[in-house]
């Protein structure tokens, strides 16, 4: 029997690239998103008859149950991997962020991951051992940077969820992993970091001299994470440098952050 992966945020960006990678690997791919047009485009890039589409707002707990059940029916009765990937960016000085922006980011980036893990558990337990919950964390979950406090909080939370469930689900034979990418070449970079900003994230990243990593690298990292033993998978030079500095040069890193320009700010 073939394997099935369920991917949130599958209409574009990282979700689409991971869908393509697993489709190429012979997996059945469940694509979940609120963007129906984007999901159709992703499905068109996959092998015929080897995908399903599921409209899903990750903030809706009951919708998770329905989407996973539909995916399992379409894919042969099982789900082997759930990729908790849906997320949105936010940046800027915390004093300048609107309450609605903060709440939406927390709901999608953190609550959505918690709901996804909870809903995924019975499916992953049924297909264990070897089933995987894969979460999209971020380099922002390694060390908090100026202008990214709310986003960093959500990604530190995703990292904590990964570490907690890695222990909690071990006896069930479910593996839990996360990806920690830096700035990735996706449509999210073309968004403004907050409502008060007129400049997109891409411009801020380039202005700060940071590299933008091809999305294909994240797709390969996801494949490796699902098939490997590493708990946290760093993706891109920024993530690797930040992890190295936070471990071996924390004082220097703190000094750098305190004097840094705010690449996601106003």
Automatic annotation (TrEMBL):
| Domain of life the protein comes from | Bacteria
Q: Per its UniProt record, what Pfam families does this chain match? A: adh_short (PF00106)
Which GO molecular function terms does the record list?
A: oxidoreductase activity, acting on the CH-OH group of donors, NAD or NADP as acceptor
Could you say which protein family the record assigns here?
A: Belongs to the short-chain dehydrogenases/reductases (SDR) family.
What is the protein named?
Answer: Short-chain dehydrogenase/reductase SDR
């Amino acid at each position: 029997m073939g394997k099935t992966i369920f991917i949130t945020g599958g209409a574009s960006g990282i979700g689409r690239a991971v869908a393509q990678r697993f489709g190429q690997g012979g997996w059945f791919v469940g694509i979940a998103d609120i963007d129906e047009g984007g999901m159709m485009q992703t499905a068109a890039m996959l092998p015929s008859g080897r995908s399903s589409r599921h409209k899903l707002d990750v903030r809706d707990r009951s919708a998770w149950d329905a989407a996973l059940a539909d995916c399992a029916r379409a894919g042969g009765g099982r789900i082997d991997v759930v990729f908790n990937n849906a997320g949105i960016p936010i940046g800027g000085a915390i004093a300048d962020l609107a309450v609605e922006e903060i709440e939406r980011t927390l709901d999608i980036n953190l609550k959505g991951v918690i709901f996804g893990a909870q809903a995924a558990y019975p499916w992953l337990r049924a297909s264990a051992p070897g089933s995987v919950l894969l979460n999209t964390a971020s380099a922002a979950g390694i060390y908090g940077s100026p202008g990214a406090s709310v986003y960093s909080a959500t990604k530190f939370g995703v990292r904590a969820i990964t570490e907690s469930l890695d222990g909690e689900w071990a006896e069930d034979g479910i593996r839990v992993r996360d990806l920690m990418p830096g700035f990735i070449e996706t449509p999210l970079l073309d968004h403004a970091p907050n409502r008060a900003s007129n400049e997109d994230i891409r411009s801020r990243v380039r202005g700060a001299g940071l590299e933008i990593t091809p999305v294909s690298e994240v797709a390969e990292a996801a494949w490796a994470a699902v098939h490997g033993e590493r708990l946290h998978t760093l993706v891109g030079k920024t993530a690797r440098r930040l992890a190295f500095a936070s471990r071996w040069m924390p004082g220097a890193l703190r000094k750098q952050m305190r004097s840094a320009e705010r690449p996601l700010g106003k």
